[in-house]
Structures are given as structure tokens and as C-alpha cells.
Amino acid sequence: MERLLIIDDEEMFVKGLKLSLEEEGFEVDAAYDGEEGLEKVRIGNYDLVILDIMLPKMDGFSVCREIRTFSNIPIIMLTARGDDVDRIVGIEIGADDYLAKPFNTRELIARIRALLRRASNPYVKKKEEIRRGDLYINIPERAVYKRGKKIELTNKEFEILVLLASNPGKVYTKDKLLDLIWGVDFYGDANTVTVHVRKLREKLEDDPANPQYIFTKWGAGYYMK
Questions:
Q1: Distance, C-alpha 109 to centroid of its chain
Q2: 129-224: which CATH topology?
Q3: What is the maximal distance between C-alpha atoms in the chain?
Q4: Which parts of the sequence carry 4-aspartylphosphate (predicted)?
Q5: Gap between the Cα atoms of 109 and 33, Å rounded
Q6: pLDDT digits (tens, 9 = 90+) for 16-53
């Protein structure tokens, strides 16, 4: 099942589009501002992004540019304006396709399927790995190795690790990790993050009490150097 990410701040629009795409057999996630969307792309192992231009915190053009520094994931850009300038800029900075709102959902689905077929070409090069010290992270295989030895992680542990490793030095609060990894609809509390980070340290660190990979900034959150 292909995984899609919608990055758009119009909640009712996202809800309706998500339902339509799920009825077509896609797994669909959503982000409601540019920064959240970018972080989800870094960790989410998605197959395609549907990206609105007008977003809070970080506009769609900036998100697209940043994604292209680390991924060739297909991107369809959306705008409320039928402006050719937007379309040209979007394509020039790395978007694969462009649709002006309002659009026919069937057309969007057809374009999604066409891009997914193109992206399945085995010769398309993608960023596939992260190295941090003795750690080697293979993103497509969702595998982690330390000094050549494979470390078995759960899906959530892996996603936390990839997020932190992709953004060295950036501190993530427990609430932010909860939103990014578990989703805004998750009804658990921040203790869920604490437990997962503790287990992740137990698997990664030589001495979990003196971590070398995942650090705590007291009163703020977690980060990797």
C-alpha cells in the first residue's frame, strides 16, 4: 500500500481528500503547516507528497526546496491560484506536478498513480542512508547497524531515531515527538515518548546512563549531536 502525505492547512479540505484517497487504497497521513510537513517527510517513508503552496510557518516552495536536498520523493504542488508563475516556480525548484484548486479528485488520483509508476523505476536514485558515528541507518530497509551489527528496533523506535539523526542538534520536546511520530490524533501522553526513548537508548548505547547518541536537554527534550 502506497503511503501519501498531504501538507495543507485547510482541515476540511484535507479531511475530504484523505477520505477519497483512502477509498482508492492509499494510506494517507497529513500535516497542517510547512515545518511539520517537512519533518514528517524526513521520517515517514512516504511514497508521494501532496504539498500546498500557502502554508503557515514555512511556505510550500521552501518545503519543496528543502525536501529536494535529501529526497527525490514525488511532489504534487497545490495552489488556490491558477497562476502560471507559481506553476513554473514549483517545477523549477523540484516539484513533479502541479494542480490549481479547485480540482477534480479523479484527475489528482490519475496524476498520483502516474508519478508512482515513474518513481518505481529502479534506476531512480534516492537518499537511502544516514551515518552518525558508529550507527548506520538504512532507511528503505528500515534497518539500523552499530559497528556492523544489526539492531532490532520497533517501528516507532526507528522513526524517532531517523527524525533525530536527520536533524542533528535540533531539540524535540516530548509533545512534538508525540505529534510527529504518533500523530495529532493519538490520545496517549508524553510518557509514551519517555518509554520509547529509554528502550531506544538501551538498544543503541554502550552505557544508557551516559548516552553517546541520544541526549536529553533537561526541561526541553531530546536531540542527537
A1: 21
A2: Arc Repressor Mutant, subunit A (1.10.10)
A3: 57
A4: 52
A5: 23
A6: 999 999 999 999 999 999 999 999 998 888 999 999 99
